[in-house]
Amino acid sequence: MKLPVIDTDLAKRLERSELEYITSRISSIGERSGNPEGVEIRKFGGATAFYTKTMPWRSFNGVVGLTPDDIDQIGGIAEFYRERQRSFEIAVNPCSASPELLKALAACGLYQKAFHSVLYGPPSRDMSPLPEHVRIDEVTDEREFGQYAEIHCVGFGMSADHKHHFVNNNIGLLHRPGWKFFLARIQETPAAVGVMLISGGIASFTLAATAPEFRRRGLHTALLHRRMHEAHLAGCELVTAQAGFGSTSQNNMERTGMQMAWTRAVWEPL
User: CA 52, CA 23: separation in Å to the nearest integer?
Assistant: First the structure.
């Protein structure tokens, strides 16, 4: 499949796919009985701000969808997080940036802290061979979700003792339309996980994690291939994912046929 070149229309579709998966994920957490994590989602013009009281990490406290039309909303966004005593980040994509927007962010006391890669690629008609002794299963049963949550946990450098938090905050997605969870095993031992959301003809690869002792065994790439095949089966036109610039994850994505859509600028308060 020949990939379409990036133009404004395609860029907007990729942006929407990212907004959809973030909104779905954070909304699911907020829909838990009593909203124990203190989730808030607020619109500021065309931008969406996410806040999670109990989780200070940037992935749960950020703004997506900001455009030059929202320059007059930046002060309100900063105040929203200031009232909650929470630092935050704003994602700025090249297709939604302008000199005036960047000046306004700086004037409001924000600075560009980092870059982040956004990639896109083709679904895969054929299933690629798996590394030796590797099996990948889709997680569909709540009774298996603890294994997924443990790898999710340790793959991000946390103790497996905290896996109940990952279960509680992610199990709501298990039966949510479009979401798919995959667990890779090596000789029957859970080793890596990958997640995707299918929506609007695009499959967003939203998360992947490998237990430290199983890294450099081809599991991340195997999970990419599996999700690309699932995207084909679902009739998707494209797949998309994010990764740290120049990271191993980005390298693996490019080896599977994905290519750079753009490098996002990440802004946060001084």
Answer: 12
Is the model's pLDDT at 1 over the cut of 80?
no
Task: Give the residue among 212, 237, 264 at the shortest CA–CA distance from 62.
Answer: 264
Distances (CA, A) of 48 to 103, 130, 180, 199, 232: 20, 39, 24, 19, 30
Tell me the helices (H) and strands (E) count for the chain, helix number first.
7, 11
Give the span between the Cα atoms of 92 and 155, in whole angstroms.
27
Residues 163 and 151: their CA atoms lie apart, in Å, by 9
Integer angstrom CA distances of residue 97 from 68, 75, 77: 6, 17, 17
Burial classification of residue 160, based on how many CB atoms lie within 10 Å of its CB (0-12 exposed, 13-18 middle, 19 or more buried): middle
Give the list of residues 6+ apart from residue 158 with CB closer than 8 angstroms, or none: none
Q: Is the pTM of this model over 0.90?
A: yes
Specify the residue for token string 């200031």: 82
pLDDT digits (tens, 9 = 90+) for 234-268: 999 999 999 999 999 999 999 999 999 999 999 99
- Measured in degrees and rounded to the nearest 5, phi and psi for residue 146 equal -65, -35
Q: Give residue for tokens 């990948």.
A: 136
**Run of H or E residues at 133:** none
